[in-house]
Design goal:
Blueprint (H helix, E strand, L loop, with lengths): L1 H10 L2 H27 L7 H7 L2 H4 L9 E2 L4 E2 L12 E2 L2 E2 H4 L36 H9 L9 H10 L1 H5 L14 H13 L7
Antiparallel strand pairs: 1-2, 3-4
Helix pairs in contact: 7-9
The chain binds heme C (2 copies).
One heme C (HEC) binds next to helix 3, helix 4 and helix 8.
């Protein structure tokens, strides 16, 4: 009684208090529902946007089970019999760096000049970090396994997506090459959400 009289005096009108409580209650219920639908109900869905980027040609053309990098959206074997080499940097006299520079070729060199970024190479023969051709579940398991992802925990994975120069190249590929379905910022956000949720994988 004491309290509500005080409130009545403060607000002058009991309906205003009622309305505020009602709105607060509604917004709590609504945000709870939102969390259940968007975050809680389908954690396995959190990987799908990441998958759509990893398996885009700009990314998967280097993340291959074979030893010849792939080119174009069709994933054709790299021209001139370019091969991985043990360390991923190419074969003697055919090192990636003999053609691929630290940045994309000048546009004046045409659409088919070599693209470039710092440390342009494939993963090593010992740990190929394959993305191409895997089911969503298998890709997810590979991505979060430190034995296969280069010893990275969730935070290091986020850092790799946000800072690595080869990853960044995927959104600045030069020529008329197509881009992954999400922007780089959207991808980093998606990886953060997935890591925060405990890196759930689809069934
Ligand atoms: C020119 C080849 C090349 C391209 C293109 C490329 N990568 Fe990679 N990627 C590598 C190499 C080499 C490594 C290993 C380097 C390391 O461990 O630091 C790697 C490692 C990774 C890793 C960490 C290993 C793992 O399996 O989790 C992730 C994640 C990754 N790349 C994502 C991407 C994404 C996303 C794109 C496209 C936007 C991309 N890469 C494009 C060569 C490439
Ligand atoms: C003799 C020169 C040469 C060497 C050596 C070479 N490349 Fe290339 N690479 C090119 C050229 C030129 C292109 C662009 C072709 C085009 O767009 O028509 C290209 C394109 C690519 C692409 C295509 C990107 C895409 O998404 O379409 C990848 C990936 C690639 N190279 C990886 C490598 C790797 C990894 C190595 C070393 C193991 C390597 N290349 C060695 C000349 C070379």
């Amino acid at each position: 009684m004491q309290r509500s009289r005080l409130e009545n005096r403060q607000h002058g009108n009991i309906w205003s208090t009622f309305l505020k409580r009602c709105l607060l209650g509604c917004s709590l219920v609504c945000s709870g529902l939102y969390a259940a639908v968007v975050i809680g109900a389908e954690p396995a869905q959190l990987f799908e946007p990441i998958r759509s980027v990893l398996q885009h040609p700009r990314c998967q053309n280097c993340h291959i089970p074979g030893d010849q990098p792939l080119q174009y959206d069709q994933g054709k074997p790299h021209a001139m019999l370019v091969k991985r080499g043990l360390d991923g940097k190419g074969m003697p006299a055919m090192e990636c760096s003999s053609c691929h520079q630290e940045k994309n070729s000048h546009p004046a060199m045409g659409l088919h000049a070599p693209p470039g970024a710092p440390h342009w190479q494939l993963p090593s023969a010992e740990n190929k970090m394959v993305f191409i051709g895997l089911s969503p579940k298998d890709l997810c398991m590979v991505l979060k396994d430190p034995a296969k992802n280069g010893g990275r925990d969730g935070q290091k994975l986020i850092h790799h997506f946000a800072e690595d120069k080869l990853v960044a190249w995927g959104w600045n590929p030069g020529g008329n090459r197509t881009l992954p379905p999400l922007t780089k910022q959207q991808t980093v956000t998606a990886v953060k959400q997935w890591v925060d949720a405990g890196m759930p994988c689809p069934a």
